[in-house]
What we know:
By secondary structure, the protein is mainly alpha-helical.
Amino acid sequence: MTPRGRALRTVITINNTYDFQVGRRLHNLDQLRQIGFNANRRVLEVETLSHDCHIGMEAFQWLQQPVQIQEQRASALRFGDKRVQALFTALCLFALQPHGFTNKALRPLLAQLLGWSQKQMTQGRMSYDLRRLCLHRIIQRIEKSQRYKLTNLGLRTVLLRARTYQRVLRSGLSILHDLNPNPPSKLARAFNQFQAALDGYFHEQRAT
């Protein structure tokens, strides 16, 4: 990490050209320049990936923890929580996007996803969730109205988390936890091979 207001400068130098099977004559300069350029691009890709992961982790943890803004406090929007996942799935519906949505419009959608009756999904419960979403910057109130809309950050967040849970995590775990698949899936076969190799490695380590 660099101090605020400063930048990190990366300089590529080649001390010994023979490390790259290139001579030291001037006519090799173009080839050395290309080698240095390629090395510099790889370093920048690694630095960018590292920085992006840090940003992504901060964004993930922001929702995993309670939030307090001035005197307002709201509980976390934890990944995998049934109510949170249902809430994010409902917010992905296109019908809610063009003109925003109200407390009343969102209640029956969330109740259906949770398997609740509409009486169970009270206005107070929905207000609690809307407050959480607002303080976590997932939604914002449309000016001079009682309607809400997804923020740009909120749209990206709910789409990624809802789809990851539905299409990757839940479906993947269902495949891996099926003890007698017929026929075995490609994922299950690959995981079984990995597990066998890992067990073999642990057995070798215990024997030494």
